[in-house]
Design a protein that fits this description.
12 helices, 5-stranded mixed beta sheet, globular
Length: 373
């Protein structure tokens, strides 16, 4: 597997290289020292030193021996999940989803609280209750508990007509102190991200995008959303809103419209007959293919990942229909991306939120090149 980032053998880069090794092992679901030297560009000696140090700090462990080829069997190293824990929460428009992740990004517990549009106080109460219910008190200290990630739409209080909420409910989430109010009610470091970017990060580190460097995630939720990965990194954009596909322009019945009105599940839920449901699927696939064609013409992507709250069969049917539209209507110079289906489902954004503390502290970042080890 080709990694987006390459390590450096220069002195003073230990922090960056450690992060690079951890990120590579997490995405590869275990790797040997030789494999890590190959994908990171670090010298074998540097990899051995870093692996030994990370193992001494209990971040890695020797999982198994891998045979094949000539020479001695290779030792495969994996992330030690018991090294730390995080909480991830998605504050959605009609539900809150919460997960407990270990240091390896594996879900240890999850919960979905469906119901009305939450207030900020209710959101804080639910996260705090989940934390204390699923993480023992002995693990709730800074050495083990790494923080809380919160994913939510940046414009959570918008689209009132589609959601059927009051102006008073929407206004609370438009205020500039939303992050401060959430942070004030919670224990430990708190990280925030757009829900689409969080879901994209989840697929990059432990989902359908672990082997990809350039892809578009389309998440079919209450409102369609998504995110963009280029060069193995989630692209946030100037305002952190890159990949916000709800407002992506599409053509429908000869009129310009937005993708939100054709590929969102709030619209699907209004279909009360089989014929109406088939009509939604047709419109959804056509609109998605139109949006993907525009994005891919600009970015030349490896793949598009479709995921969301639909069951696996319906998601697969829509993906097949999208692939068919792309094949039928492609211009001569169009290289159609691979259309994949994800398996994280409604837990994608919450899982990505839980990965935020890990990503912030243990993933390679160019800024870490300028910090002393």
């Amino acid at each position: 597997m080709q990694m987006a980032r390459k390590g450096t053998n220069a002195s003073g880069m230990r922090r960056y290289n450690e992060r690079l090794i951890l990120s590579a092992i997490r995405r590869m679901n275990g790797a040997s020292k030789a494999e890590l030297a190959r994908v990171t560009g670090l010298s074998p000696q540097a990899v051995v030193r870093i692996i030994d140090e990370l193992e001494a700090e209990s971040m890695l462990f020797q999982a198994e021996k891998r045979t094949g080829g000539m020479g001695q069997p290779a030792t495969v190293y994996r992330i030690n999940g018991a090294r730390g824990y995080t909480i991830g929460a998605e504050i959605g428009r009609n539900a809150m989803t919460m997960v407990l992740l270990d240091f390896d990004g594996q879900r240890q517990a999850e919960q979905c609280d469906a119901g009305g549009f939450p207030t900020i106080d209710v959101a804080v109460e639910r996260i705090d209750r989940f934390l204390h219910a699923h993480l023992p008190a002995s693990l709730q200290d800074p050495r083990t508990f790494l923080g809380i990630g919160i994913a939510m739409p940046w414009f959570l209080g918008e689209w009132r007509d589609e959601l059927g909420i009051s102006e008073h409910q929407a206004e609370e989430w438009r205020r500039g102190d939303v992050a401060d109010r959430l942070r004030a009610g919670l224990t430990g470091p708190v990280f925030f991200e757009n829900d689409g970017n969080a879901a994209t990060l989840a697929h990059l580190l432990c989902g359908a995008g672990v082997d990809l460097q350039n892809y578009l995630l389309i998440n079919l939720g209450t409102f369609v959303g998504g995110g963009l990965v280029l060069g193995g990194q989630v692209v946030q954009g100037r305002h952190g809103n890159a990949g916000a596909l709800a407002s992506m322009p599409v053509m429908a019945d000869g009129q310009r419209d937005s993708l939100i009105h054709h590929a969102s599940l709030y619209d699907r839920d209004r279909a009360t007959t089989p014929a109406a449901l088939d009509g939604w699927r047709r419109r959804c696939a056509e609109a998605l293919a139109f949006a993907i064609s525009g994005a891919n013409s600009l970015l030349d992507l490896e793949a598009v990942i479709l995921d969301g709250s639909l069951d696996a069969d319906e998601l697969a049917d829509i993906a097949a229909a999208v692939g068919g539209h792309l094949a039928e209507n492609a211009p001569p110079d169009f290289f159609a991306p691979d259309v994949r289906t994800g398996t994280l489902g409604r837990q994608a954004a919450a899982t990505g939120a839980g990965l935020l503390p890990l990503h912030a502290q243990y993933s390679p970042d160019l800024s870490s090149l300028f910090k002393r080890a």
